[in-house]
Predict the 3D structure of the following.
Amino acid sequence: MPDSLSRTFARFVTALEFDALPPEVVDKIKASVLHAMVTAIVGADTAHGKASVELAKAEESLSTGATILVDGARVTRCGAAFANSKLMHATNQSDSYRMLIHPGPCNIPAGLASAELGGHSGSDFLTALVAGYEVEARIAGDFIPSTQARGFRSSPVYGTLGAAVTTGKLLGLTEDQMVTAIALACTFTGGTTEGASSGGQEMLFHEPNATRNGIMAALLARENVRGSETALEGNAGFYTAFTGNNRGQLTYAFLGPNETDMSDVTGDLGSRWEVMHVTPKIYQTAGYNCPVIDLMTQIRSSHEIAPDAVQSITIDMNWLETLYPSPEFPNPQRTSPGIGSTHYFAAYTCINGRYPPLKPRLDPGIAAPRESSDVLDLMKRVRVVGHRDRPAFSPRITIEVAGGSTYQGEYHGDELKWDLATEVRRISALFTDMSWPADRLSALVDTVSILEIFPDVSQLVQLCVRR
């Protein structure tokens, strides 16, 4: 009988060593670490970020605990991870895998707290993150749209498993204990899409709670309770509960037929790295809007287009991107022109030539600020069309102007899957507008770039703590 999915993952994770990681994988995970640490600094100025920090300090203060970023207070492992996860996700600038899961704000705060408390080296920290990201992404994979279709929000559902694996790796769990950690994470996870569908804000705390639950799964696994060997693929397991079946039959798919091969979940483990497909979000909006903003910026910089001459803008996108959070429960405030919609970001960028990355987060239908009449007017002339044969994050934008001229640009889906050098270039553009010392931000870039040589993560943490 072949090994279960959990057993295969557990064997891979417990045996994984830093020296076995391909250089491009290490480079990629560093990009996510840098992105998360900078966005945590930005997120600390938000009301939700501040509230989560104060909650952790009030409920879980511990002088020998882990550090809350920016604030510097010491709290329990779970308290620090909860607060730091919130900081990393408060502005909606976290990283993304296949549009709908965000491994950074679950794996990185979980790993940071355990690495700090355990005195682990920079290379240990990076290795654990690669393990968590890789397992989370593989378990999620083609199943993400089916999870959304059942009313669950994919990011916390799969993020709990990633946080458990990252934490378990740093705790030094045995193979059997890692199987149990995955089993416990399968039962501890959750998070519905009703908020995303109806405009509620409960999803703002999905990732922080998933992070906490994943950590608890790993900690409890040390009690040597026996977890279900087939917690993922069993008849009453994770896939049946969160995707509808354990046979790879999908409700929806980003591309192609509504089915996937279950063997692909662990296929080529250790040689095919899903972490390479993670996409950082530089703008404070849903991931599918980021390539629209970047592509529109490029079109405007390449052509002399008078915004008042624009007659129409057509955006062709992957069909699931136009029906967020799911075709089962689409949010009409995201699918029609309005502040915070794809129509809005295209119009704003077309008129202004760019979209400011630090412009405060705009969630459709929630306390929308005043906007210029030019943007509001052009927004109504933006048409968004979903296609089943276009990959995610691959918009095509067509601009028609008075006189009959047409301007067009197109992405193919990989343009925003940045390496560390690109992340440094893009994230550094934010530094002059951030309320954080420029020299410390530069030092943060330098530290992350060579993080594997550090004996612990204290310098990484302290560079993100207010003096």
User: Anything to note?
Assistant: The mean pLDDT is 96. The chain has two domains: 5-281+436-462, 287-410. The longest strand covers residues 310-318.
